[in-house]
Write a structure and sequence with these properties.
The complex is a heterodimer.
Chain A (H helix, E strand, L loop, with lengths): L10 E7 L1 H7 L3 E6 L5 H11 L10 E4 L2 E2 L11 E5 L6
Parallel strand pairs in A: 1-5
Antiparallel strand pairs in A: 1-2, 3-4, 3-5
Chain B lengths: L1 E6 L5 H8 L6 E8 L3 E2 L2 E10 L1 H18 L4 E7 L1 E4 L3 E9 L2 H18 L2 E7 L2 E4 L5
Parallel strand pairs in B: 1-5
Antiparallel strand pairs in B: 2-7, 3-4, 4-6, 4-8, 5-7, 8-9
Helix pairs in contact in B: 2-3
The chains are: A alpha+beta, B alpha+beta.
């Protein structure tokens, strides 16, 4: 379904959504094709632009490969990106 | 040494206390968080917990490591439920052993406070007429 990427090609990343983020996107787990070297900030901006309901949340953080991302972090092929709405464990 | 667990099955405080028992320690401190029947004045029927399990375990380990840096903890058990929980069910257990009680109380409080800040686990409250992800919106 997705072509193997090279420098000029899009890359595939895996998105996980939890809690209210899953409700907003209507899906818990899907693949996305994005441009190479996309930053986590650009990806977040894309999500916010496409899904205005995200801006109603107290916060939305993104994790890459099960670690909280840092601003400017660059995505790689096959990264697992999780949308983390405000946590409420305990 | 840590015992970290996320489970959709009922949690057992005795398992945690047995794990943390150590002859170098005089205090076993435990915090148990349970499902209660109301939230902000509304009657709660049940809670549903969801976890990003792989990351939640990593974050729980970071909290345990940090607590061990701050206080002389011999052993620590950190268990959290997922799935559907009913009134009175145990949602979370933190148990730890220390030489004396004071550092035990502090460490236990630190761990539960930190869990609520950083561990990717979400709680949905189910009311009589509706449901809501806790803390999601203002």
């Amino acid at each position: 379904m997705f072509r193997k990427s090279d420098n000029n090609d899009n890359m595939k990343i895996n998105i996980l959504a939890f809690g209210v983020a899953k409700d907003i996107l209507g899906s818990a787990n899907f693949e996305m094709e994005v441009k190479p070297k996309l930053t986590i900030d650009e990806l977040k901006a894309q999500f916010l632009a496409k899904n205005p309901d995200f801006s109603k949340l107290n916060s939305i953080l993104l994790a890459i490969n099960s670690e909280y991302s840092i601003p400017g972090q660059v995505l790689k092929e096959n990264d697992e990106v999780a949308l983390i709405p405000p946590v409420s464990g305990g | 040494m840590f015992d970290l667990k996320i489970s959709d099955q009922p949690l057992n405080p005795q398992d945690c206390l047995d794990f943390v028992n150590h002859e170098s320690t005089g205090a076993s401190t435990v915090f148990i968080g349970r499902v209660r029947n109301q939230s902000k004045g509304k009657k709660v029927l049940r809670l549903e917990f969801e976890a990003y399990e792989k990351m939640a375990l990593k974050e729980m380990e970071k909290i345990a490591e940090k607590a061990k840096e701050k206080w002389p903890i011999a052993k620590l058990a950190f268990h959290h439920r997922t799935g559907i929980t009913l009134l009175g069910d145990i949602a979370v257990i933190i148990a730890l052993s220390t030489p004396h009680r004071k550092e035990g109380f502090r460490a236990c409080e630190y761990c539960i406070d930190a869990l609520k800040e950083t561990v990717p686990i979400w709680k949905k409250e189910i009311f009589e007429n509706g449901e809501e992800w806790v803390s999601a919106t203002p």
